## 1
Amino acid sequence: MELATFTVDRKLGDHTPIVVAPIGDIQWSGERGATAKDLLKRHLDRCLEVNAWYVGLGDYIDFLSPSNRQRLRQAALYDTAEDVVDDKALDLAHEVYETFLKPTTGRWLGLLHGHHWAMLKSGETTDQRLCQMLGARFLGTSAYIRIQFRAPKSARRDNVVLWAHHGCGGGMRTGAPLNKIEDAAASFAGADVYIMGHTTKSPVAPFERVIPRWAGHGAPDLIHKRIYFVNSGGFARGYTKGAKQGNVPMGGYVEQGMMRPAALGAPLIHIQAGRRWAGGTEMWTPTVTVEV
């Protein structure tokens, strides 16, 4: 698990929300693949309009699954064949960057890996190479990401914490991924927003917590804190008109498995800095909302 901190400098009294955009499950396999290209471009245009910061949730290309990687390792390919595989995998990473993600360079809080990536002969992964293109930190499998608000000439540091994982498993029902996020939140405390991808579903749920506050010699109090569980959607279509396997009219694994259509698109997380007075104590109370 990775721990990352990003500082946002704010003027005193500036309460303009910052926007965090989870982006994942693009599953780019080329022009003929299942990526909803126009929708992804429109979503990224919207993110650029609001000057968003991005978190990568994995599966940026659709190249090798875990079982594919295992079989490829067992194939004992010649070096030249490995070079061809590496070149194709890197082509996809460059394409997803050049075609979609290039305008977001320098605005990433970090990128996680998912299930679909390639291990290169260099020992790096295609996800790590994509991070290099985007000027972003590779966050591995899961991460706590602290967004720190800092005002000039002030020692005060106010934080909003995200917990992020690509996700695993499945479930047909719309709320299925929320159950997995809720289980994770029980073990990984301290986050304001829990984000998971993988399922290409987009449910969002507020979750209430009660926390005791012991105010020194003053009277104790209870703090009611709302956190959010967020599933990050995706951009890989499960059903396409006239789908073929080679020259045979046949759908892909989603259609063959009678799975539900993907929830295309991704949420935007709005975070507004704020403080209030309660019981004579000034408290950090950011406002978090999620736009689906």
Note: The two ends are 27 Å apart (CA to CA).
## 2
Amino acid sequence: MLIGIDASRAVTNTPTGTETYSRYLINALIELGHAEHRFRLYFRVPPSPELFQDAEIRVIPFPRLWTHIRLSLEMALHSPELLFVPAHVLPVIRPRLSLVTVHDLGYLHFPETHPPGQLAYLKLSTLWNARVATHVLADSAATRSDLISFYGTPPEKITIAYPGLADTETSVHVYTPKEIKARYGIEREYFLYLGTLHPRKNLSRLIAAFASLPQNVMLVLAGKEGWHHTELLIQIRRLGLEERVLFTGYVDKEEKTALLRGALALVFPSLYEGFGFPVLEAQACGCPVITSTTSSLPEVAGDAALLVDPTSTDAIASAMLRIMNDPALRQTLIEKGLENVQRFSWKQCARTVMNVIEQMVQSMV
């Protein structure tokens, strides 16, 4: 069978969660299924030659509306038997069989955390995906439940396929924790946030919670700038935290791993996540985790994190103090975290997806 995959989101130089998902899952699918199936990957720009092996690479550049015009044209002229879109929206023209991943519906829970234009696009594109796809993959039970509740997607049309964590994402040792602290001028012990600086990540409450902590710790916010990030700078100045809160900007894999290994804990009090890769990345690096009681985060963290009400500044601050004052708790969370990450792998995710694909094909026979 010829399986087409929209791989356009897998080749960015600064990957976040969905781009990471796309890249690793595509490679895992090819490795799992290349003996029985052919894979054709569609790109807007050429990928690095070493990224994808045992697959046909199809580069189809187009300036705007690439999905609905250029990819649709490709589907009309040279259609695969099935199209899988792991990190974007299905084109208007597509094969009889189409599979799409819906990562989260957090924009419906917290619409105020998105710019109006982005909010409208997320609503329309996700509704389109849920309605027209032959089958839908969800990153978590939380996302599956939201699809059923908000969009009326039939439960039998949705399969949960938990993303994985590749060894290469946490095994790099370019920097030691001491070296990464020197690189960024981190002069004390520190708590770490990892991710885009976006209102849904609840960073204003995190900063407010941190302000109540003793002076001998820092807060490192590692991630690229998002919507309303300048408001965080204003808050930090108002609270007098300029010397204790550090922005690194986007960090690459090597820097991220070293920052996690050196942190007191990852603090990830997001209001909503479809999955939450930073939680697993931290646990795999032996970094304790403080995260939210909401959405998919308890699913992902298991019993290996301190779970807090993300709307309570006091709860976030209390958990950070517990980490500072209880070395035995830190060690317990580290040990449990290393166990928890074993539940997630790209190989298992690919097996689930491939089973869905084969069932879709059989249903059409």
Note: The radius of gyration is 21 Å.
